[in-house]
Write a structure and sequence with these properties.
- A hairpin with a 4-residue loop joins β12 (257-262) and β13 (267-271).
- α1 packs parallel to α2.
- This protein has three domains: 4-185, Rossmann fold, CATH 3.40.50.620; 219-271, Adenine nucleotide alpha hydrolases-like domains (SH3 type barrels), CATH 2.30.30.280; 277-371, Beta Barrel (Elongation Factor Tu (Ef-tu), domain 3).
- It has 372 residues and is α/β, with parallel strands linked by helices.
- The chain has helices at 13-24, 51-64, 74-90, 97-116, 160-164, 175-185, 207-214, and strands at 4-8, 28-35, 38-41, 44-47, 68-72, 121-123, 128-133, 138-143, 166-167, 221-224, 230-234, 257-262, 267-271, 277-288, 298-303, 311-318, 322-332, 339-344, 347-358.
- The protein has seven helices and 19 strands.
- The protein has a six-stranded antiparallel β-barrel with strand order 14-17-16-15-18-19. Strands 5-2-1-6-9 form a five-stranded parallel sheet, sandwiched between helices. A four-stranded mixed sheet has the order 11-10-13-12, with no helix packed on it.
Length: 372
């Protein structure tokens, strides 16, 4: 009996070719699109997924000769992702909704629907690779062959159970190969542009979305320099993030950047570009993909956001369940609320959420430890 796989089809070229490749490999393939979010803005409907994309996914499924479904997960998405997104900004942190969506929605609620359809696996168009470690009996997550498109960062929070039921066929392919193959197959999505970073933000900025959601919670306050001097006024902490330069509306004769968000005093702290660099931060809510000795420190390449190239650091125990990450070289705009992912070469060791950022000198940690 053939194994059944449900492919998450977004109407883009990646998920379209994913469905084809798995059918070619002999799987019993089902296509499905997630209906996640809808909102009316100024009388006009805005959706997380454009209706045209759903139609494209449906037509690709028809072209491939596979069943197609639309799965409504709006309630789950609102509860798990939208509310998290707004809450994090409200607390002065910068969230990463894609990581949470992958764990709780795509490989959570959506896969439960997939199992109801008899699926053994859930496949996505992510550029990442899976392997199995026979010695430890654990599934491993690795970078894609196409390093420019690698999306392993967004998948670090998946559990062993979720990884065991995941398929990422594009991990061995390069994006240009994917588009070329889709063109050869006559898939209507072959020239579809890249999807936007945050699917439920339809405007050019996330500010209007937060303004509608947070309302009176957006409280203006002072913009301060490092000495506490008032330089101006901000429009609400959720509109600012570490490293931000634009939108400060400060005419001080030199570029100023957001260096910290003081939630307690509702203040935005600014300074020079040099002051945006830090070398140490605390990580919590860690998910380990590779089994590690919890009491020991280890070197790793650490990414502090998706488009960060990664940098050498020492990851050390901190308290009962947290980790302290100390970079060899200070990095720009380490941001609370973002994900920090630990790599050993191609392999994802694990990752967590940036809780607090400081300089190593402020917490008694020597940079020399990160150089051992």
């Amino acid at each position: 009996m053939r194994q059944r796989v449900l492919v998450a089809m977004s109407g883009g070229v990646d998920s379209s070719l994913t469905a084809f490749l798995l059918k070619e490999q002999g799987y019993d393939v089902i296509g499905a699109t997630m209906q996640l979010w809808r909102e009316t803005v100024h009388g006009n409907p805005a959706e997380c997924l454009d209706p045209d994309h759903i139609e494209d996914a449906k037509q690709v499924a028809k072209h491939l000769g596979i069943p197609f479904h639309v799965v409504n997960l709006e309630e789950e998405f609102e509860r798990e992702v939208i509310q998290y997104f707004c809450r994090e900004y409200g607390e002065g942190r910068t969230p990463n909704p894609c990581v949470l969506c992958n764990k709780t929605i795509k490989f959570g609620a959506f896969f439960k629907k997939a199992q109801e359809l008899g699926a053994d696996y859930l496949a996505t168009g992510h550029y990442a690779r899976l392997a199995y470690d026979e010695k430890d009996g654990r599934f491993l997550l690795r970078k894609a062959c196409d390093k420019k498109k690698d999306q392993s960062y967004f998948l670090f929070a998946l559990s062993q159970g979720q990884l065991s039921q995941a398929l990422f066929p594009l991990g061995e392919h390069h994006k240009d190969q994917v588009r070329k193959r889709a063109l050869q197959l006559g898939l209507r999505t072959q020239d579809r542009p890249e999807s936007q970073e945050i699917c439920f933000i339809r405007e050019s900025s996330y500010h209007p979305f937060l303004a509608r959601r947070l309302g009176e919670a957006l409280e203006p306050g002072p913009i301060l320099d490092g000495n506490g001097k008032v330089l101006g006024r901000h429009q609400g902490l959720p509109f600012y993030t570490i490293g931000q330069r634009r939108g400060l509306r400060l005419a001080k004769g030199r570029p100023l950047y957001v260096t910290a968000l003081d939630r307690k005093n509702n203040a935005v702290i600014v300074g020079t570009e040099e002051e945006v660099f830090r070398d140490t931060f605390r990580v919590n809510s860690i998910n380990w993909i590779v089994s590690r000795e919890t009491a020991s420190s280890f070197p790793a390449q650490v990414k502090i956001r998706y488009n960060h190239p990664g940098a050498e650091a020492m990851v050390s125990p901190y308290g009962e369940s947290e980790r302290l990450v100390t970079f060899k070289t200070a990095q720009k705009a380490i941001t609370p609320g973002q994900a920090a992912v630990f790599y050993d070469g191609e392999t994802v060791l694990g990752g967590g959420w940036i809780k607090e950022v400081f300089r190593s000198s402020e917490c008694g940690v020597s940079n020399e430890k990160a150089k051992d």
